[in-house]
Amino acid sequence: MTASALQAVNFDHLLAYWPVLGIGCAVGLIVLTVLSVRWFRAPHRTLASPAPYTGPEEGMRGSEWQLDPRAYSDRRGTIRREGRPVRVQVTSPALKGGVETAYVLDRSTGGLRLALTAALAPGITLQVRADNAPDNIPWVTVLVRNCRHAGQHYEIGCEFDKTPPWNVLLLFG
What we know:
Strand content: 25-35%
CATH topology of the largest domain: Thrombin, subunit H
Shape: rod-shaped
Oligomer: single chain
Low-confidence stretches: none
CATH superfamily of the largest domain: predicted glycosyltransferase like domains
Mean pLDDT: 77
CATH class of the largest domain: Mainly Beta
Largest sheet: 6 strands, antiparallel, barrel
């Protein structure tokens, strides 16, 4: 085509589509930017050799095989914090003495891990109150999720029935 032929072509009908083309290009640029930022911030897996297989040995029956404990991940939705054990009072109809003393070993906004002298079955409801709590602080309801023997005491994993206010949570340590 010659220069005079190009001058004869009319591009006026395409002027109506330039906002659509511009918006499409802008969206594409934003998507590429977000994807590249995520790519560079994400921890990348290396191509190193995989972890050794910990499955059943030759001749071992399937019922004897157990998963490596490191294979389990922490399923907690909240971060748990350890700290100085805090003395608390625990009450429940399941406890024979009515009110017993326990210690908070770790805590989160989701629950508590208590050290108690008595074993409790999962599913039992307890009322817990910090030993140093003022009289106007209410008892907190927790649900026993697990119980395991740990030497001279039992470690009781408890979940809050309803997350208590921050000022009450602070009393547990």
